[in-house]
Amino acid sequence: MTRAVQLAFGSLVVGCLVLATKFGAWWVTGSVALYSDALESIINVAAAAAAVVALWVSALPPDANHPYGHYKAEYFSAVLEGVLVLLAALSILREAYQGFLDPRPVDAPLLGMAISGVATAMNAAWSSVLLRFGRRWRSPALVADGKHLLTDVTTSVGVLIGFALVPLTGWTWLDPALAAVVAVNILWTGWSLVRESVGGLMDEAPDPGALGRVRALISGSAEGAIEAHELRVRHAGRVTFVEFHLVVPREMPVGEAHDICDRVEHALREAIGESLITIHVEPPHKAKQSGVLVLP
User: Fold this and answer.
1) Which CATH number belongs to the domain containing residue 66 in this structure?
2) Radius of gyration for the alpha carbons in the chain, expressed in angstroms and rounded
3) Largest CA distance in the chain
4) Closest CA to 4 of 59, 80, 63, 78
5) pLDDT tens across 45-72, in order?
6) DSSP for residue 105
C-alpha cells in the first residue's frame, strides 16, 4: 500500500467521524443550516472512498494495455468528487427552500454549535495534512480532497457565525438563508474541481511559469547542443511528461549526444520530480531558431 493510499484511508476514517459529529449537531438542533453542513460530509466520505480506489489504480505499474501507466486514474476521482459536490449543493438548496416556506426555531443552539465546532476543527486539521502532502507528492486526488475539506471548513465557520445570530435575533429565516449560501459556495467548489480535473484528462498545458522553468532547465543543462524546440509538457497525476527535439552539431558522436540527453533528464527530474522524458536528437539543418537556445 502506497503512502498516498494510506493517507486516503485516513481521509475515509476522518470523514466518517466528522459525518457522525455533524449529524449529531443537526439532530440536537433541527437546524437546516447544520443539516446542509452535515450533508456535505456524506460527500466527503464518498469522495474519500473514491480516492482510495483511484490512488490504488494510479499506483499500478504500466502494462500492455496502459504503456504510459495508470496515473490519470486520480483525475477520475477528482471529477467524481466534483459531481458529488454539485449534487450535494442541489440537495441543500432544496432543504433551504423548504425552510423558507416553513421556518422553525432551532433547539439547543449552544450545544449544536459546540458539536459542530469539534467537527470543523477535525476537518481543518486534516485538510491541511491533505493539501501539504498532496502537493508534495503531486497527487490530484489528495489535493482535490484537501480543497474540498477546506471549503467545508470555510462554510462551517460561516454557518456557525450566522447560526449564533438566530437565537439572538429571533430571525428564523436566517437558518435556511445560511443553508442557501452554503449551497452556492459548494456549487462553485464543485465546478472548480470538475474543471481542473477535466483539464488534466485533456492534457492541458501547464501554466506559463512552469513551462518557463522547464525551458530554463533545458537551456542551462544542454551545454554542447545548439537548441531545443517543439517542447511539450503535460501532467498526468503525479507524473510530468516532457517531450522536445534537441539539435546538436553534425559532427557530434552519438555517445556525446546521449550524454547531453542524460544531463538534461537528470536536471529536469531533480527539479520537477517523477517524470517521463522523451528527447529526439536532430542535426543542425533541423534547427528552427525559435525554440530554446542552449546557453554556452
Assistant:
1) 1.20.1510.10
2) 25
3) 86
4) 59
5) 877 777 777 778 877 888 888 887 777 7
6) P
In which region does residue 292 sit, left (phi positive, over 0), alpha (psi from -120 to 50) or beta (all else)? beta
Could you tell me if 63 and 139 lie in one domain?
A: yes
pLDDT, tens digit, for every residue of 212-260?
A: 889 999 989 999 999 898 899 887 767 888 999 999 999 999 999 999 9
Task: For residue 135, give the C-alpha cell.
Answer: 502537493
Whole-angstrom CA distances from 29 to 102, 108, 121 are 16, 6, 19
Q: Cα separations (Å) of 76 from 45, 81, 277, 293? A: 16, 9, 24, 38
Q: Domain limits at 235?
A: 208-293
Closest CA to 218 of 291, 154, 116, 139: 291
Q: Are 233 and 266 in contact (CB under 8 A)?
A: no
Number of domains the chain contains: 2
Examine the domain organization and report whether 159 and 243 are in the same domain.
Answer: no
User: Is the pTM value of this prediction over 0.90?
Assistant: no
